[in-house]
Amino acid sequence: MKAVALTDLGKMELVELPMPAVAGERDVMLRIAKVGVCGSDLHYYQTGRIGSRVVRFPFVLGHECAGTVLETGQGVKRVRPGDEVAVDPAISCGQCDQCRRGRHNTCRRLRFLGCPGEAAGCLSEFIVVPEECLCPTKGRLSLEQAVLCEPLSIGAYAVKQAQLPPQADIAILGCGPIGLCVLLAARHASATAPFATDRLDHRLAAAASLGAGWTGNPDNVAVVNEVLGRQPAGMDVAFECAGQQETLDQAVQLLKPGGRLMLVGIPTTERVSFGIDALRRKELTLINVRRQNHCVETAIELVASRTVNVDGLVTHRFAPEDAQRAFDLVAAYGDGVIKALIEFECD
Fold first, then answer.
1. pLDDT tens digits for 96-148?
2. What mean pLDDT value characterizes the chain?
3. Would you say the C-alpha torsion 105, 160, 150, 68 has a positive or negative sign?
4. How far is C-alpha 72 from the chain's CA centre?
5. Segments of the chain assigned to CATH 3.40.50.720
6. Residue 232 to residues 60, 217, 236, 335, Cα–Cα distance (Å)
7. Nearest CA to 190 among 288, 285, 291, 307?
8. What's the Cα-to-Cα distance from 85 to each of 68, 134, 228, rounded to whole Å?
């Protein structure tokens, strides 16, 4: 089968790999149609690692995907051949203390698609995953929309963990695909029109089109002063979606006493820092957001019910043989890209 492998830093190649096999009773083989290029994929592409997870080349990346069920194990009941599905890329054990507490996203034996040392990614024609990872779309979504349910599920989980008060004032710092998905989920949760910041004007334009009430580029305006000038009491919740020290500092400044800082972005550095005086005096709560914890079905319902519209997030589409160009484009933030897809099957 065809697959796209990371063969060195900054190098993606189309390769031939053996077909996977349905070995377990609950295994399901999928024919992959579309795969999204995620910011975490770029960490591996550019640096070869995220924290303790280090790539050994060659390695197949990718965890945002949708496809069609091709074959199932004898014990599979959730799906059948021909079903179109969105994929939850987290494979949890269901047995450890974390899983028993409903924290499948911090499973002691978690395997995540496209994560070195855990599981190969979905940038291939076929993959085999447990049926628990599959969310049937029942014909209510296109396969492209189904791919977007993975990043939207992270937004939904982040908003769920934030426990937004009614009519919450929120800021979203970083309006890449995940930041925009947080914005969509927050608007659904009845937050007031969020304040949104980013260094790329085309992302700010996307944020405005999706419901941001104010947008600002920190290269052009003093975003903290601008936001607090409009909302002097500060923010109830700040979603940091850029993984940058600068945006972490801005978030702390923007929050009102008792506010929550949601850490959604993935920093490229080993350490970040906070000014303890502001954290302590404001009694701020910091909450790390670890992926999506089974919120893919929530995302499917949001899209299928037309509660949120994700259609404008995909700006570029590439064939597998052009994966190198796709990753280079996203890494360079070129050509107004928001979300790029690699398509093994076109609509």
1. 999 999 999 999 999 999 999 999 999 999 999 999 999 999 999 999 999 99
2. 96
3. positive
4. 27
5. 162-288
6. 48, 19, 12, 36
7. 307
8. 6, 6, 43
Buried b (16+ CB within 10 A) or exposed e, 308-343: bebeebbbbbbebebbbebbebbbeeeeebbbbbbb
Residues 6+ apart with CB under 8 A from 267: 243, 244, 245
CA 331 to chain centroid: 16
How is residue 315 written in tokens? 């700006």
Predicted pLDDT of residue 347: 66
Q: Which CATH architecture has domain 2-136+310-343?
A: Alpha-Beta Complex (3.90)
Residue 266, class by beta-carbon neighbours within 10 Å (0-12 exposed, 13-18 middle, 19+ buried)?
Answer: middle
CB 84 within 8 A of CB 139: yes
Does residue 84 contact residue 66 with C-beta atoms inside 8 Å?
yes
| Contact (CB, 8 A) for 251 and 171 | yes
- Cis amide prior to 194 (ω within 30 degrees): no
CA–CA distance, 84 with 32 (Å, rounded to integer): 10
**CATH 3.90.180.10 residue ranges in the chain?**
2-136+310-343
Distance between CA atoms of residues 221 and 216, nearest Å = 7
Main-chain phi, psi angles of 27, to 5 degrees: -75, 150
Domain 162-288: assigned CATH number:
3.40.50.720
Confidence tier at 307 by pLDDT (50, 70, 90): very high
The beta strands (E) that lie in the chain are given as 2-8, 11-16, 27-36, 49-50, 53-54, 59-60, 64-72, 84-87, 90-91, 111-112, 126-130, 134-136, 170-173, 195-197, 214-216, 235-240, 255-263, 285-288, 314-318, 339-343
Place of tokens 């004898």: 74
